[in-house]
């Protein structure tokens, strides 16, 4: 249904203004604080007004039913951020502190952790890499509009999750079996 | 008639109410493409058609760097290290900018913080690249680090 009334008393905008604004089709509402068109300005002021009222925020993430679609999407982003964060913190830390990576590994080795414990840590390192890569393929399929019906989304989702876990597990098992003492 | 009155009337009664304004507005409506043009300016002031190219480049790059990771499982060495950090630095940069654009919004963190968020994202990407480069040049390097970690 289109806006067919010439004057909308709700928004205090004329049809001309509404159409002019929608022609700009600005997808992000308030990313850049400076440049706002009339509709975005109205929306921004609405939000500020609501915040000032002191009313609590409606529940969102805590009430949304966990579903494979957004859980995997969240996991994709979270694994990406954790890997990036680890590389960032690790890279800078090994650069500015007197500790280098060899010292760090020697320290961990001196803790003499049992194999199951080290295997768990290795799985925690391997799984995000594998999952993010495989889910990346799945998401690129979505970008090409392939497999976007709900059945395929769920099927590919479970497949990605399962295969990532299996590949990471295979890496860990192979590593536990063929652990060579690395001389450095 | 105001928009709210129109919205409240049940659909089956809306026909006669819509007929006249629909006719009057149709001449205005027919001239516009409601989907908008992609040369119209986006929020950052740049033409929106440019985002499409950036999106494509991001995805093509991600597809291209994908074989690098299975290869890195088998092939190690300084060349693989260099390829890995080149791929990781750029891909992660785009990822960081996307995440910051999504969450560091004015309504969430305030207007000044939101304006500083994008330069902060660039700073993080630069720090990542510097850290990785230092790791590859003055420390053991990424593939060797994985070897050592997995030997624990």
From TrEMBL, chain A:
Organism placement in taxonomy: Eukaryota, Metazoa, Ecdysozoa, Nematoda, Chromadorea
Pathway(s) it belongs to: Carbohydrate metabolism; tricarboxylic acid cycle
InterPro entries: SQR/QFR_C/D, Succ_DH_cyt_bsu_CS, Succ_DH_cytb556, SuccDH_FuR_B_TM-su
Chain ranges passing through the membrane: 78-99, 119-141, 153-173
Keyword vocabulary terms for this entry: Heme, Iron, Membrane, Metal-binding, Mitochondrion, Mitochondrion inner membrane, Transit peptide, Transmembrane, Transmembrane helix
Listed CDD domains: SQR_TypeC_SdhC (cd03499)
Gene Ontology MF terms in the entry: electron transfer activity; metal ion binding
One GO location term (cellular component): mitochondrial inner membrane
Keyword Heme part of the UniProt annotation: yes
Entry protein name: Succinate dehydrogenase cytochrome b560 subunit, mitochondrial
Keyword flag Cytoplasm: no
PROSITE patterns the record matches: SDH_CYT_1, SDH_CYT_2
Gene Ontology terms describing biological process: mitochondrial electron transport, succinate to ubiquinone; tricarboxylic acid cycle
Source species of the chain: Panagrolaimus superbus
Superkingdom as given in the UniProt entry: Eukaryota
Record's subcellular location: Mitochondrion inner membrane
Membrane topology: Multi-pass membrane protein
Endpoints of the signal sequence: none
TrEMBL record, chain B:
Residues annotated to bind heme b: 91
Subcellular location: Mitochondrion inner membrane
GO BP term, pick one: tricarboxylic acid cycle
Alphabetically ordered keywords of this record: Electron transport, Heme, Iron, Membrane, Metal-binding, Mitochondrion, Mitochondrion inner membrane, Transit peptide, Transmembrane, Transmembrane helix, Transport, Tricarboxylic acid cycle
Transmembrane segments: 82-104, 116-137
Function: Membrane-anchoring subunit of succinate dehydrogenase (SDH) that is involved in complex II of the mitochondrial electron transport chain and is responsible for transferring electrons from succinate to ubiquinone (coenzyme Q).
Amino-acid positions noted as binding a ubiquinone in the UniProt annotation, renumbered to this chain: 103
Membrane topology: Multi-pass membrane protein
Name the UniProt record assigns to this protein: Succinate dehydrogenase [ubiquinone] cytochrome b small subunit
GO CC aspect terms: mitochondrial inner membrane
Organism per entry: Panagrolaimus superbus
Single GO MF annotation: heme binding
Family: Belongs to the CybS family.
């Amino acid at each position: 249904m289109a806006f067919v009334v010439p004057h909308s008393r709700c928004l205090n905008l004329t049809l001309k203004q509404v159409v002019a604004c929608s022609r700009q089709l600005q997808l992000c509402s308030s990313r850049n604080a400076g440049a706002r068109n009339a509709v975005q300005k109205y929306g921004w002021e609405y939000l500020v007004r609501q915040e000032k009222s002191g009313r609590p925020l409606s529940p969102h993430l805590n009430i949304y039913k966990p579903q494979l679609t957004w859980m995997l999407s969240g996991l994709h982003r979270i694994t990406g951020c954790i890997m990036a964060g680890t590389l960032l913190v690790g890279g800078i830390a090994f650069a500015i502190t007197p500790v280098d990576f060899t010292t760090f590994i020697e320290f961990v080795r001196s803790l003499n952790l049992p194999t199951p414990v080290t295997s768990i840590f290795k799985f925690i390192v391997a799984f995000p890499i594998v999952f993010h890569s495989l889910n990346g393929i799945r998401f690129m399929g979505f970008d090409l509009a392939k497999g976007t019906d709900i059945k395929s989304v769920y099927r590919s989702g479970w497949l990605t999750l399962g295969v990532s876990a299996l590949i990471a597990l295979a890496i860990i098992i192979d590593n536990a079996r063929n652990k060579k003492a690395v001389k450095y | 008639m105001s928009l709210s009155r129109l919205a409240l009337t049940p659909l089956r009664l809306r026909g006669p109410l819509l007929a006249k304004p629909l006719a009057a507005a149709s001449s205005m409506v027919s001239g516009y493409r409601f989907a908008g043009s992609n040369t119209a300016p986006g929020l950052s002031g740049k033409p929106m058609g440019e985002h499409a190219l950036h999106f494509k480049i991001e995805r093509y790059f991600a597809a291209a760097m994908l074989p690098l990771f299975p290869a890195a499982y088998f092939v190690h060495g300084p060349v693989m290290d260099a390829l890995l950090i080149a791929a990781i630095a750029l891909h992660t940069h785009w990822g960081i900018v996307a995440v910051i654009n999504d969450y560091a919004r004015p309504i969430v963190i305030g207007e000044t913080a939101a304006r500083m968020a994008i330069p902060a994202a660039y700073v993080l990407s630069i720090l990542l690249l510097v850290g990785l480069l230092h790791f590859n040049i003055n420390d053991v390097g990424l593939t060797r680090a994985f070897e050592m970690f997995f030997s624990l």
